[in-house]
Fold this sequence. Notes:
alpha/beta
Amino acid sequence: MPFYDYYDDLQATGIGRTWARTQARNVLGRLRRAATTAHSVLEVGPGHGSFAQACAAAGLCYTALDINLRLLRGLQDKGHSGVRAMAPGLPLASRRYDIAFASHVIEHSATYREALAFASELERVVAPGGVVALVAPD
């Protein structure tokens, strides 16, 4: 979607990139403590891929889901797997991932029902004993 190309055009400063990488490693560390046997991760709304890089460095099987083809291609160019889709309504198998993660995505839901459907879809694709993690500004 062209609207989301705006986010792809934004470039972080060196300090911003360092902060994003550090935050991604910190979040992943917390998620791995909650899901100690995790091997697979789904991230909805991957942005420029700081969390993807942290997952790759940790040896996890990573999949990104986003509606923006340009962002996904950028991640795929770096060796990450991606699925183009709008959430909710994830076109993914149930119980497929050990961790499902979305940072600053749920607040873009138009209604409470849409936000609940999004959270329910994340729960559906996570295996028993897995973790669903959401980061939101409020």
